[in-house]
Amino acid sequence: MPGSRRPRDYRPIRAGQESRTREGGHVPIDRPTASALERIAAGYGLEISPADLENFRTAAEDSMAAWDLVESLYAEQVSAIPERAWSRPDDSDNAWGAWYVRTEVQDCDDGPLAGRRVAIKDNTSVAGVPMMDGSRMLEGFIPREDATVVSRLLAAGAVVVGKSVCEDLCMSGGSHTSKSGPGPVRNPWDPSRAAGGSSSGSGVLVATGEVDLALSGDQGGSIRIPASWLGIVGHKPTWGLVPYTGAVPVEPSLDHLGPTARTVTEAAQMLTVIAGPDGLDPRQPSSMEMVDYAALLGRGAAGLRVGVVTEGFGHANSEGEVDDTVRAAVESLRSAGMVAEEVSVAWHANAPALFSVIAFEGGLAQLVEGNTFGFGWKGRYDPELMAHYGARRLTDPSAFSESLQMTMLAGRHAHDTGHGRHYAMARNLERHLTAAYDEALRHYDVLVMPTTPMRATPLPEPDAGVLEVLARGTEMLTNTAPFDITGHPACSVPAGVAGGLPVGMMIVGKRFEDATVLRVAHAFETEVGGFPRPGRPEVHS
């Protein structure tokens, strides 16, 4: 049931391939002309005399030798792109629009995930396989190296069977913005509805059983929203627990990678494999205790204390069926031996405003003007990706989705008006938000609330207006986005089915106590007898 939109034809461009080449394997940086410097000076409001401008040109031209040397040195260090077979699926093999490319990559046939078929969200690098991040800005790009998490999955015996469609630069909670699939990613519970985003393809491939596991990413809820709307498990780890190295950033303080799975046990097994420092991602502590999350599920959750967050219910756009289903799920937690009580976290209501400021201004600086990686980062960069993206951004800015255009317009206006002070305020207020959750978690082992205020929403029609397109991508973030700001672990599990559509319950824990979150999730799954599947809502797995 795919739509009619298809990607434009393109010639794959491998990392490091340039439109201009010279003998020696690298391209010298363009030398500045007087007219180019004059335009730059005008943009900064600098008044420089023609004579001084020529002197600056001479000095800048001499300085460019350093740029040439850096490129030459870098060329000596990088490895060749591996040859890995891949193909684009046809419509008959992509009924839900969830696949970007298919492949079959396996490094070993033993390990904790031996033989498990895994899809990789297309914001994360699989070397030698195209990565589009759902956007025209990366169309034709093929990365040079595997992301750390991909290397770890392959070392654990997993088979990478393809890249899953994700939303355009991961900037939508809907499933209607990607440019890498045949149309919107459709929900197998109801094809007229969204699958949730931005990890839309990962969620659908797991929900339909086309893969065993999927790697997903989360900046505002992008692991948990598809999990909620598709009736599966999605775990956003503690910020920094899983290395983000090799994935396309949106805003470093919000970036997370984590597992999407049918069951809590499978999610815990995958988290065990991908967690831990890699020495390349400054988000991570330099050392951390290695945890077997699946083994710890056996401890159960009886006696744990659950805080039911009052402010997580009853939003202006909340559906009564969602709130009622999650409150009924809380009763199942009590039946499993946990103590569940209402708790108020007043700051939760302020979190969406903080998220908007951080996402708009931070996303503008990082994802748009910083060509995804930005500056001042001590971790691993992908210079070829930055160059590819930057060239596309300048030559075809209209290819940005409505979500990105909104980020550019609102973010630039806010920055030009406030000069970044609101971003700074939001970052300082983040500490108060974090402290509010920490205070609640001082009294409770986990917090729970609906993952999203509503069930899967109808997909926008092809001729939908800008306001509808934007709303379908942001209206579900109220409960998920706060924990991308604070970094607390948060797992969405199916609370039940209401009106034929899944409802998600989100379980939130103390930072780096992901094991406790998963224990509660597993105890709930056991208590309700497993989770339903699309087309068989009464059947438990």
TrEMBL record:
The keyword Hydrolase applies. It comes from the Bacteria. It is an enzyme of class 3 (hydrolase). Pfam families: Amidase. Its EC number is 3.5.1.4. GO terms for molecular function: amidase activity. Keywords: Hydrolase. Residues 1-33, 173-201 are annotated as: Disordered. Residues 1-29 have a biased composition (Basic and acidic residues). This is Amidase. It comes from Nocardioides ginsengisoli.
